[in-house]
């Protein structure tokens, strides 16, 4: 599995799954365009990628909830590399919010998790058609399994799932594959619990891991490996599909 001369655009690349994807694709010799809001973290990730590959990725400070930023992401990527082979839609925000929560929280998550992803994909499609490239979207198991306090976030991930399938159906006849990964709990900065100290957060996550059949949380590196497989030629017959990576979350607790 190699991505020599392939251009891979990754959103949310400054931390978590996105950062792991950047390192994974760099190790596989891809040319990278890394998008994030935190410039310091983004540059740190780019530096690690440079150590792996030998040349520095393109870094783009951008917020995909802002239309002008979305356009700039595509323009900068094409200006640098002249093409696009793989789009990894990873950027997302999680705010704990239920039906009685502030509607502004819902709007923020819709703007990034759905609208921004939709618009970026729309802008990327003409270039993906030229290369017969592919898209990998990062969803979540909460699109299929309700979790208390995560109603609004779950709705955005449910929308991501059907967005993936509809896009795959539309672009498949034109040679572009579209798939998604649905991770369970991953210990990243996205998965935070309000008002908990770092020690309390660690204890909380340990308790969650003990409830899972595999007795551990998903690692962002493992998600990145799955994403890179879906993006490679070995997966040339896979499109419109969901790939759960959750250490058994969806199996439920047999002793509950």
From TrEMBL:
Pfam family for this entry, one: adh_short_C2
Molecular function terms, GO-annotated: oxidoreductase activity
UniProt KW Oxidoreductase keyword: yes
Signal sequence, renumbered to the chain: none
UniProt entry keywords in alphabetical sequence: Oxidoreductase
SUPFAM superfamilies to which the protein is assigned, alphabetical: NAD(P)-binding Rossmann-fold domains
PROSITE patterns, per database record: ADH_SHORT, PROKAR_LIPOPROTEIN
Transmembrane segments: none
Coiled-coil positions: none
InterPro entries for this protein: NAD(P)-bd_dom_sf, Sc_DH/Rdtase_CS, SDR_fam
Official protein name in the record: Uncharacterized protein
């Amino acid at each position: 599995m190699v991505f020599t001369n392939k251009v891979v655009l990754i959103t949310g690349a400054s931390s978590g799954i996105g950062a792991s994807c950047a390192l994974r694709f760099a190790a596989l010799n891809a040319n990278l365009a890394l998008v994030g809001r935190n410039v310091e973290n983004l540059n740190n990730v780019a530096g690690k990628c440079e150590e792996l590959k030998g040349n520095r990725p393109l870094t783009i400070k951008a917020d995909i909830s802002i239309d002008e930023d979305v356009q700039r992401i595509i323009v900068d990527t094409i200006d640098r590399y002249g093409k696009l082979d793989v789009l990894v839609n990873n950027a997302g925000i999680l705010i704990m919010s239920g039906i009685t929560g502030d509607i502004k929280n819902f709007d923020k998550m819709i703007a990034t998790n759905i609208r921004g992803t939709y618009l970026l994909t729309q802008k990327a499609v003409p270039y993906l058609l030229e290369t017969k490239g592919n898209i990998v979207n990062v969803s979540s198991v909460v699109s299929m399994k309700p979790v208390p306090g995560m109603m609004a976030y779950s709705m955005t991930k449910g929308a991501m799932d059907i967005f993936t399938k509809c896009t795959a159906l539309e672009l498949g006849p034109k040679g572009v594959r579209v798939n998604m990964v649905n991770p369970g709990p991953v210990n990243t900065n996205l998965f935070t619990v309000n008002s908990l100290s770092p020690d309390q957060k660690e204890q909380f996550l340990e308790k969650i891991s003990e409830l899972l059949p595999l007795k551990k949380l998903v690692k962002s590196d493992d998600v990145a490996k799955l994403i890179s497989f879906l993006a490679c030629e070995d997966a040339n017959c896979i499109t419109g599909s969901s790939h759960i990576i959750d250490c058994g979350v969806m199996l439920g607790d047999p002793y509950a």
